[in-house]
Each structure stands twice: as C-alpha cells, then as structure tokens.
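Quick review question:
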C-alpha cells in the first residue's frame, strides 16, 4: 500500500456486492452504523431498531455476479430471520455465486447453514464478528448478540466441516487482542480483520439516546489512540492471517509507519 493509493472502505474492502433482507437487527449493537443511518433517515428509532422487518425483495436479483457477495451487511442472521436467510442463500449459490456470510454467529443458525449448504462449501466464506473474548465487554456493546462461547463453537463447527473461516475484529472492543487472537487463530483458514470503532462518540450517542456511559466510550477511544494502534500494527504486521481495516491503515499511513504491504 503506497501513501497515495486510494483506500477502499467499509464493505468494499471485503466484497463487490451486498445483499440485505431485513430492516433492523435484534442484536441492537450500540455502535452500529446501520442503526445510526436508519435513525438519521427516520426509517427506525433507537428503540425500534431491534425489531426486524423483512424488506421488499421484489427487485432483488439473484443472478451470477462477477465478484464476492457479502450477506448481510446492514443487519445480522438471527433466529428471527434464519428461514428467509436460508432461502436467499440457496437461490444465490444455486446461481453460482460465492458468498461472504458475515455474522455474530448464533450457533443454531450456523448449524442450519452448514448442514444445508455443506455441498456448496467452496462457494461460502464465513466471517464471524468477534471484537472481544470477554462476555461482559460483548454484552456492553452488543447487548443482544451471542456470547463469546457461542461464537467460538460456531467458528469451530464451520472449520471442522471444511468451510473457509475468517474473523472480523471490527470494531475491537477492548485492549485484549492478544487473548482473542490466540483463541481464534487455530480455527481460521482465511483472515483476521482488525479495525477501530468508527465515529464512536457520535454513533453511540445517537443509537442509545445518550444513555450509554460516556466513560466507556472515552476509554475505548483512548485504547484506540494512534500510539496504541501503531503498537498493535508493529506487533502483528508480520502475521499472515492479519488484515487491517481502513480505519487502521489510515493511522499507519498518517504516521509513516507502514513497513509491509497493508
């Protein structure tokens, strides 16, 4: 990565296309970009975001795409929408598409996906979002999302059955990445993506109607200071599985610390 290269950002770092099918997400993560946008454009409120509503799929196309399709990107696959998720995944893979399934994995949902699509596993990449191995931390930032243990056994199941597995540590939710990395690394075949929490103060304030403890936001922002991000990069930049999200690449480039292709 050269200093003047254009950086891809958001979902474009991962896939050429996105496919979403609900408005709202029961996980109700306090930092969620999609929730903040839904509130800003009056599609949802801070209180109603957790109510999952199926979107109109009339104009959705399931035809073969030339690039990776990320499903979903603005909500999650949950027990409330798993049946429609299975139907949509089936239509996409039967047309020859390759899917990046991004989720804070519910174990029952993952069991249904891997059992139904075992013969299509070469067309599916799992990217499990795990920002901390501490359940108290996960519960604070992602109130209704699965526990670390549930995400961990989901990762191991997909790995055991021969699916491509990767991890999204975006956003990192504490300063204990070493512990998380050591636990998930043995079950990752593809990559571990690391990123900061973007626009933390603004999004958390909007998404929680200013009820979230500001000291926790300030603590996280301090953990993700340029100095600490550079230290993390210097420690892990030679690890083959590690990939850096745009939020970290910007810090490294700004501080002239890049030493390998990022």
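Suggested answer, residue by residue:
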């Amino acid at each position: 990565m050269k200093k003047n290269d254009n950086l891809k950002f958001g979902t474009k770092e991962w896939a050429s296309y996105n496919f979403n099918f609900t408005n709202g997400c029961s996980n109700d993560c306090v930092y969620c970009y999609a929730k903040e946008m839904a509130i800003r454009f009056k599609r949802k409120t801070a209180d109603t975001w957790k109510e999952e509503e199926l979107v109109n799929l009339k104009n959705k196309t399931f035809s073969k795409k030339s690039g990776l399709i990320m499903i979903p990107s603005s909500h999650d696959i949950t027990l409330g929408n798993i049946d429609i998720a299975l139907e949509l995944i089936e239509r996409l893979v039967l047309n020859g598409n390759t899917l990046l399934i991004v989720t804070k994995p519910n174990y029952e949902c993952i069991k249904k996906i891997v059992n139904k699509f075992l013969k299509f596993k070469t067309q599916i990449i799992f990217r499990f979002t795990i920002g901390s191995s501490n359940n108290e931390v996960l519960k604070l930032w992602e109130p209704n999302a699965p526990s670390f243990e549930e995400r961990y056994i989901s990762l191991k199941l997909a790995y055991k059955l021969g699916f491509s597995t990767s991890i999204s540590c975006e956003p990192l939710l504490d300063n204990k990445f070493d512990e998380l990395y050591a636990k998930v690394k043995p079950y990752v075949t593809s990559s571990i993506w690391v990123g900061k929490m973007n626009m933390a103060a603004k999004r958390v304030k909007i998404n929680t109607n200013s009820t979230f403890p500001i000291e926790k936001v300030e603590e996280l922002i301090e953990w993700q200071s340029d100095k600490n991000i550079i230290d993390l990069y210097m420690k892990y930049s030679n690890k083959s599985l590690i990939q850096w999200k745009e939020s970290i690449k910007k810090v490294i480039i700004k501080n002239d610390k890049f030493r390998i292709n990022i």
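Why it works: Residues 82-94 form the longest helix (13 residues). The radius of gyration is 18 Å.
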